[in-house]
Design brief:
The chain is an alpha+beta fold. Helix content is 18%, strand content 29%.
Length: 362
């Protein structure tokens, strides 16, 4: 890699054009011929906290990331890139060049040699969003860009009271929205609601029988989880090929919050079982003193198991521990196949594993 004093740096500042916001404060930077033959580009990027790298090319359409900066490092060939949106500039990117794109800066490939390839990476390997200059993106993306400069500020209301929170990191866990606003569904006589396309039990549009929807695009009882979307897509495929004969089963939907420690759940909550009139037994146990968690020095571990006393079956499970993600699958199996807790207690599991404690939780 070139010495700092030998590097040519090009600075370009491009304003918001109404579609591509670019960045309100930071310019984009181009380091010419920064990398030399034999340099381990991914390793050098990683050592400077640019990670989550990929090797490929730039999309041939205007796009930008609102929630993170991006580095592009040219490995081979040359390309003409349009940076900053339609009102931006065309630049030549050649082998060894590095481009730093602050959050919001548009980029697009105009042309490239057959051997062109660049690495892309992000600060801390953060997952990037994709935006295309559509009007509906602006309220969210402008907020994100303003947050990348230093700290984060979140403003909101709780009841009639407003609040403001500041911090170094904000995690958004409010879920997803269906990406169907630009499909002109009304022209196809396809009814929709906030959660997605309105469908019947066969995932068929209730207003246009020629249309089916699944996953985030469908308004169903299913949680917005990848396995649920996969299951629904199989239902749609079956019904398209063979006629309406298959429906989705939402009884068992295990979910995990991958925090530290992890939090997982499957089945019914204690409140919902009482509302439905079940005769239940609730096993709520602090397991942090159990050997499974003591040996790994876990400070926090707890389980809450809801059991149908009349049928001796698990109705719901809620777990907190580092092993909660794997352990919840055992409870999902028990609920799916209506296994009796007495039978589950007879099962011999490998020891010491989290699953070997299952009998003691029941």
């Amino acid at each position: 890699m070139k010495r700092a004093e030998d590097i040519e740096v090009i600075t370009i500042k491009i304003e918001d054009d109404g579609q591509i916001p670019n960045h309100p404060a930071f310019p984009l930077l181009i380091y010419k011929s920064l990398f030399e033959e034999g340099d381990d580009i991914p390793a050098i990027l990683n050592s400077n906290d640019w990670s989550g790298e990929w090797l490929g090319s730039v999309h041939p359409f205007h796009h930008y990331h609102s929630n993170t900066h991006e580095v592009l490092a040219v490995k081979e060939g040359q390309a003409t890139l349009h940076l900053g949106g339609e009102q931006g500039e065309a630049v030549e990117a050649e082998k060894g060049d590095v481009i730093i794109l602050p959050a919001g800066y548009g980029h697009k490939k105009i042309d490239a040699s057959e051997d062109y390839a660049n690495y892309g990476a992000y600060p801390g390997g953060v997952d990037f969003d994709m935006n295309y200059g559509k009007a509906k993106e602006r309220p969210q993306t402008i907020d994100n860009i303003e947050k990348t400069e230093s700290s984060f500020t979140v403003e909101g209301t709780q009841g009639e009271e407003s609040f403001k929170l500041e911090g170094d990191l904000v995690v958004h866990g409010a879920g997803r929205v269906p990406e169907i606003d630009d499909l002109d569904l009304e022209k196809g006589n396809v009814d929709r609601e906030k959660e997605g396309v309105s469908v019947n039990e066969y995932l068929q549009s209730i207003s246009n029988p020629r249309v089916y929807a699944a996953g985030d695009a469908a308004a169903t009882k299913g949680l917005p989880l990848t396995p649920i979307a996969s299951m629904e897509s199989q239902v749609v495929a079956t019904n398209l090929l063979n006629g309406n004969q298959r429906t989705s089963n939402y009884e068992v939907m295990p979910s995990v919050v991958f925090s530290l420690p992890k939090l997982s759940a499957v089945g019914l909550s204690e409140e919902s079982t009482r509302e439905q009139g079940y005769n239940i037994r609730v096993n709520k146990i602090d397991t942090s003193e159990w050997y499974t968690y003591k040996r790994t020095n876990e400070r926090y571990a707890m389980v809450k198991i809801i059991i149908d006393e009349d049928k001796d079956q698990v109705l719901g499970a809620h777990l907190l521990s580092r092993e909660a993600d794997e352990l919840i699958n055992h409870f999902a199996t028990a609920i799916q196949f209506k296994l009796k807790t007495e039978d589950l207690k007879q099962m011999i599991y490998a020891y010491p594993t989290a699953a070997s404690d299952l009998g003691s939780m029941l």
